[in-house]
Amino acid sequence: MIKSKSIAVVGLGYVGLPLAILAAKKGYDVVGIVKNPQKAELINKRISPIKDEKLQSNLERTNLLATTNFDVIRDASIIIICVPTPVFDNHMPDLEPVISSSTNIAKNLQAGQTIILESTVNPGVCEDIVLPLLEKKSGLKGGRDFHLIHCPERINPGDPKWNVENINRVIGSLDKEGLEIATEFYKSILTSEIKQMGSLKEAEACKVVENSFRDINIAFVNELALSFDKLGIDVRNVIDGAATKPFAFMAHYPSCGVGGHCIPVDPYYLIEYAKNKGFHHDFLSLARRINSAMPEHTAQLVVKGLNDVKKSINGSKVAVLGLTYKANIDDDRESPSYEIIKHLEEYGAEVVTFDPYLLKKSTQSSLDDSLKGVDAVVIATNHREFIGMSANDFSKRGIKVIIDGKNCLNKSDYSKSNIVYKGIGR
Ligand code: SAJ
């Protein structure tokens, strides 16, 4: 049984804030712990640090409090860790946020409390890293004095259908009572299904498997795109054709790269952990190599496109439209756009950028300004503001080359114009 209605959420980002607000809406007394005092102040003033209308309106209607002080967890019956788990440049998992949160929690841990880790980690992190930290710093015994749970987050930024309340969840636990407590908690705030896993490791493995599945499927169609470019076949049409098969096919689409804090990151958690245990994930590693090479492939398409109109990339001006990693959101973590820009500048191009969801990082303040005097345009993110752009929108500005990094433009409109159009595999 849950001991009281008081909950603490460590980390109020894309994962923690929606969860904290939902628990508060469902009648829990929720306190959020953040590193940044300005962020705490914003939330306490009922201002969401994440641009999301629903989140903002829900925050205004709850009693969620934010603080930078870990002492508050002493009064919580359930403490949920929702901190980021990035990877270093060498693709090794960076567990520092999980380790420092666990250490701060351990200093305040009370007998009878339940700790839930929602952050994405490789199998083994809960038992081999978090549990020893909690026990050592608190002097308490996991499974006896406190419960340790893993319930991997499945937040999907910007998704109009799936949200923190209706996405099914899996739960793994160190002990049976903990599993029941966590199940009771999630059932009290979610409308979705809750699946109890056989162990912490099984729950940890679910998340990295889900996202590795997506990464390899994207790599599959990215390789098809490179092949079909040579074969003169439109890969997008073929995928749409294959997708008419009502079973045993799941459409994924090639693009200029795989960004975000999940898909390009999570496979490395499994790759590195398995490597330490003596198994090499050749297939997952190959998928990562294919997807990581797409930004350079896209930059090469710009070179070829300019070459088709007898221009050199060196000294040309190129507009990269879109800096975020996916459409209609303001998140640019691991965005392929930055890799594309890096390659173009290495080739000697002058690059200007515009992203209506990330004006502060754009070099130009408007779409019109970003297209002035450019020789080529790369659509790097399929924002709603870009996908309807016609060939005339570009040709009237004297732009001769369009690289459609998300295959989101109407290709037939361009093939009738004197613009060189190149998509990814089409
Ligand atoms: N991408 C492709 N081709 C595709 C799908 C995606 O190139 O067919 C690219 C996107 O452009 C983006 C990256 O991959 O750069 C990631 O896209 P994503 O749609 O997977 O978006 P994410 O990173 O927000 O992934 C989340 C994940 N959710 C969780 O981890 C809880 C993922 O598991 C979901 O499958 C995904 O949302 C989703 O389906 O939208």
Kindly describe this structure.
By secondary structure, this protein is an alpha/beta fold. The protein has 16 helices and 13 strands. The protein has helices at residues 16-25, 37-44, 53-60, 96-106, 125-138, 176-189, 200-231, 235-242, 266-276, 282-292, 294-308, 336-346, 367-371, 384-387, 391-395, 411-415; strands at residues 6-10, 29-33, 65-67, 78-81, 114-117, 147-150, 169-173, 194-196, 317-321, 350-354, 376-379, 401-404, 420-423. Strands 3-2-1-4-5-6-7-8 form an eight-stranded mixed β-sheet, with helices on both faces. Strands 10-9-11-12-13 form a five-stranded parallel β-sheet. α4 (96-106) links the parallel β4 and β5. The N and C termini lie far apart (57 Å). The structure holds ligand SAJ. Ligand SAJ is lined by residues 154-157, 159, 210-211, 214, 218, 252-253, 255, 258-260, 262-263, 325-326.
Largest sheet: 8 strands, mixed
Name the strands of the widest sheet in spatial order.
3-2-1-4-5-6-7-8
User: Given the helix and strand composition, which structural class is it?
Assistant: alpha/beta
Helical content stands at 40-55%
How many individual β-strands? 13
Strand-residue proportion: 5-15%
N-to-C span: 57 Å
In DSSP terms (H or I, runs of 4 or more residues), the helix count works out at 16
- Give the topology string: H per helix, E per strand: EHEHHEEHEHEEHEHHHHHEHEHEHHEHE
> Spans of 5+ residues with little confidence (pLDDT < 50)?
none
Radius of gyration: 24 Å
* Bound ions, cofactors and other small molecules, one mention each: ligand SAJ
3D shape: elongated
